[in-house]
Specification:
Number of strands: 4
Number of helices: 4
Strand order of the largest sheet: 1-2
Number of domains: 2
Length: 209
Amino acid sequence: MVIQKEKKSCGQVVEEWKEFVWNPRTHQFMGRTGTSWAFILLFYLVFYGFLTAMFTLTMWVMLQTVSDHTPKYQDRLATPGLMIRPKTENLDVIVNVSDSESWDQHVQKLNKFLEPYNDSIQAQKNDVCRPGRYYEQPDNGVLNYPKRACQFNRTQLGDCSGIGDPTHYGYSTGQPCIFIKMNRVINFYAGANQSMNVTCVGKRDEDAE
């Protein structure tokens, strides 16, 4: 015996849906009474409140072990790396003296790189240090921040300072200025305050082999 299910009209479906959303006889909203909804909301409020408090406490404890000024772990780099400026993609600075467009971008990069080393800016932000001595700024029990670096004035670069330079850092005359930049490593002391000596020569074809 086959029992054919009665097909409901569109009006009946709407009425059933309205009764499910709000049943005036049982005072249920979406199948639950107000008390049931209150318990559910209270449970999730307490549950997510506990998760938020635990996450906040964990982050606070972790931040107490981290300094705002010194990285916690810096053992990946025992000695500072060196970079050249102007910064290029493969560290090769290739220019054509007769083509200003080939070296104009390098000049613009050097202008931007050396701008913070203008004498006036260095006098405002950094201290004059005595040559031949490390410039240490110990905390002595009290945080001594922000620490100030030693002044390095752009005028010390002489012909490579780019100040009033008609040769554009020497690029227009085939004697370009290349700067070597040492990355900062905290608590690294250069050996005996000796300056590095760097010899620069033009790249030869056999060097690329």
